[in-house]
Amino acid sequence: MTTSWADSVAASEEEAVAAAPAPAAAAAAAKFSSDQASQPRPTRRTYVPPHLRSRPQSSVAPAPPSAAAPAVIDRVGYGGPPAGSWSTGGFRPDAGRSGGGHVPAGGRNGRGGGRDRGRDRGVNPFADKDGLEQGIVGQENAAINFDAYEDIPVEATGNNVPPPAGTFADIDLGEALNLNIQRCKYVKPTPIQRHAIPISLAGRDLMACAQTGSGKTAAFCFPIISGIMRGRYVQRPRGRTAYPLALILSPTRELSIQIHEEARKFSYQTGVKAVVAYGGAPINQQLRELERGVDILVATPGRLVDLLERARVSLQIIKYLALDEADRMLDMGFEPQIRKIVEQTGMPPCGLRQTMLFSATFPKEIQRLASDFLSNYIYLTVGRVGSSTDLIVQRVERVHESDKRSHLMDLLHAQRENGFHGKQALTLVFVETKRGADSLENWLYTNGFPATSIHGDRSQQERELALRSFKSGRTPILVATDVAARGLDIPHVAHVINFDLPNDIDDYVHRIGRTGRAGNTGLATAFFNENSSSLARPLAELMQEANQEVPAWLTHYASRSHGGGRSRRSGGSRFGGRDFRREGSFNRGTDYYGGGYNSTGHGVSAGYGGYGVYGTGVTSAWE
Ligand SMILES: Nc1ncnc2c1ncn2[C@@H]1O[C@H](COP(=O)(O)OP(=O)(O)OP(=O)(O)O)[C@@H](O)[C@H]1O
């Protein structure tokens, strides 16, 4: 394949790579072919072309006039779920939506304004479709390869960093939560959990970075649930306004749904109630759910602002604030909304609430912004910040724009031939635009590959349907825009294909992080051409750092490129993403603690006095 841009890059090895892309991908795919499942046949009857798909129906009710109620302080002790609260009122199952919370039929129970506490009356989140739950004590989640996490570098900076825990038993999370951890088949905490949970339980603010798929959701959910269980919190005022104690914000609807599903599992029978609110879904149902009481509100920022403006939610007694994908939440797109929510809606200021920020990537400029929301916080990094995990095999192939489709087809055929397809080996294809997603989905389908798509122009119902269809393997290929790039935890995603590369290397990190999760291996293939030239350098650096084979043509291309793609290494240590406070005035290290650990929590280097203790200015734990 000879192209004008390719000609500008060094010759011989490039030709070899470009000439045989499909076998290379096939060989890579073959490495992952252990899970073989039969290929579903395309069933055209169920396919609805993108242009015929229905648009979302809007059913937003007019805002009722409502005065913000003051927080009423009236302590109610928590000593386990209140007895007798659940004897009346039946249940009705989730209303069809995957993320729908349980909807008790009995209406508001007891105390108004949010006390619907006690043993969950809703669907058991651990039950199978017949309503049966397996025994609580079971085997370790067989998919988790914990060896992959040993010796991962860990660094914590800040004052008086609480020591990490070794096991869940070392952490006193409370009996009911411990039972749910067993139900989830979590046997040991992942490194981020080992370190972050004790920090949060000690009441400290936290900015935490850990690689994709490493268990960050539980790392912020467990301390919140445990804190609410043990806390002697206020009885919420009666009325239509909901007063959550914890707020978890995430950038996408699907991620909020997923976090809510996780939070429901973790809080099952703890007396702590989690509710989700996100855009694109009828607000009335969410309002009804909120009226029944909420301890933990999981929300997307837009819908939350709507609820705040309608005075249906008050943040006045928030005790815990967690931002998942915090760097995304504080970048240009979301920052004004987040500031409004955190600073202008009566939420207790930092210092009076506890704030936790989590992501796999944390650019320095965002850290600086984020520090406005934190007080005397600990900066925790587990693994190389912003790096991809070594568990993901990364391939980059040079493909001219006009050849992308046929190249993708070669790849998918090769996968099929190698038995690397079907329910146990899902393929996620990222594209740049919504139109591109529709068009590629259509084309794949027409060519015999059952595919669906998810992007911002599809109705919420369609988006959720697409995800379900993908997860179940009915359509084992999902074409997605960046709406699916962050946080989604879909089992059996074996291959992520960057059909179009993103402009920002951090987006690439999150995209490929949809595979290789929880200690499993995964494959990521990127189609590279002149349109993605700004990514050449950070991509080559990232691959090198993750011990990946970097094609010579990419190295060459990177050496000629003029940056862009936001070099991940800007202004930091070799691995980037270090605590920004350690640069500038903090760098002189007066009351700073810098500790390096391996994942087992045994310090390999630690000291007071901050930066200086490492002598070279490079944190030893990273090397
Ligand atoms: N201690 C544990 N033991 C076993 N499995 C775990 C444990 N903690 C989390 N998991 C599982 O690991 C998977 C990934 O967790 P999670 O989605 O929280 O990752 P993440 O770090 O938030 O990823 P991302 O950066 O992509 O958002 C989930 O399926 C979760 O159930």
Automatic annotation (TrEMBL):
Q: Which portions of the sequence form the region Disordered?
A: 1-133, 557-582
The Swiss-Prot or TrEMBL record annotates one GO molecular function as:
RNA helicase activity
The leader peptide range reads none
The answer to whether the entry has keyword 4Fe-4S is: no
The residue ranges flagged as biased composition, category Basic and acidic residues, are 113-132
Q: Gly residues bias: where?
A: 97-112
| Catalyzed reaction equations | ATP + H2O = ADP + phosphate + H(+)
- Pfam hit, one: Helicase_C
Record domain Helicase C-terminal: where: 407-558
Q: Which InterPro entries match?
A: DEAD/DEAH_box_helicase_dom, Ded1/Dbp1_DEADc, Helicase_ATP-bd, Helicase_C-like, P-loop_NTPase, RNA_helicase_DEAD_Q_motif
Q: What is its EC number?
A: 3.6.4.13
Q: Which ranges carry the Helicase ATP-binding domain? A: 197-380
Q: Of which family is this protein a member?
A: Belongs to the DEAD box helicase family. DDX3/DED1 subfamily.
Looking up PANTHER family in the UniProt record yields:
ATP-DEPENDENT RNA HELICASE DBP3 (PTHR47958)
- Protein's name according to its UniProt entry: RNA helicase
What species was this sequence derived from?
Answer: Eucalyptus globulus (Tasmanian blue gum)
